[in-house]
């Protein structure tokens, strides 16, 4: 039996939809978003990785809060933590 591990991180919403639903314009094709805003977790993480400061992010996206940025980082950490590295034969 396969077990599904679900991590719940406040402020991060996984819409689960792969298609854009015009009746639900806040969802981004199944991507995890911040509080249902049209700001994906990936956008926040890429900006931080590019060296954009938290202060700059908050200026660029006034609807974001510091707790949202921490939630995006926590979400990424939970994904990495759940990863398994499997050995490849012959290496």
Structure explained in plain terms:
It is a single chain. The chain is mainly alpha-helical and 91 residues long. The chain has a single domain (12-78), classed as Winged helix-like DNA-binding domain superfamily/Winged helix DNA-binding domain (Arc Repressor Mutant, subunit A, Orthogonal Bundle). The protein contains three helices and two strands, in the order ββααα. α1 packs across α3 (66-81). The longest helix has 16 residues, at 66-81. The chain is elongated and about 50 Å long. 14% of the residues are buried.
Radius of gyration: 16 Å
Main beta sheet, described?
A: 2 strands, antiparallel
Q: What is the assigned CATH homologous superfamily?
A: Winged helix-like DNA-binding domain superfamily/Winged helix DNA-binding domain
The dominant shape is elongated
Number of strands: 2
- CATH class category label: Mainly Alpha
Strand portion: 5-15%
The strand line-up of the biggest sheet is: 1-2
Which regions are unreliable across 5 or more consecutive residues at pLDDT < 50?
1-7, 15-24
Write the CATH fold name: Arc Repressor Mutant, subunit A
Helix count equals 3
Q: What order do the helices and strands follow?
A: EEHHH
CATH architecture: Orthogonal Bundle
Distance between the termini: 30 Å
Helix content: 25-40%
Count structural domains.
Answer: 1
Mean pLDDT comes to 77
Structural class: mainly alpha
What's this model, at a glance?
35% of the residues lie in helices and 7% in strands. It has 91 residues and is mainly alpha-helical. It is elongated, with a radius of gyration of 16 Å.
């Amino acid at each position: 039996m396969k077990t599904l591990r679900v991590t719940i991180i406040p402020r991060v919403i996984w819409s689960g939809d792969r298609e854009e639903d015009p009746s639900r314009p806040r969802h981004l094709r199944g991507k995890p978003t911040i509080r249902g805003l049209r700001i994906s977790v990936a956008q926040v993480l890429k900006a931080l990785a590019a060296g954009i400061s938290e202060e700059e992010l908050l200026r660029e996206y006034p609807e974001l809060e510091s707790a949202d940025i921490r939630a995006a980082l926590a979400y990424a950490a939970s994904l990495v933590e759940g990863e398994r590295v499997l050995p490849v034969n012959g290496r």
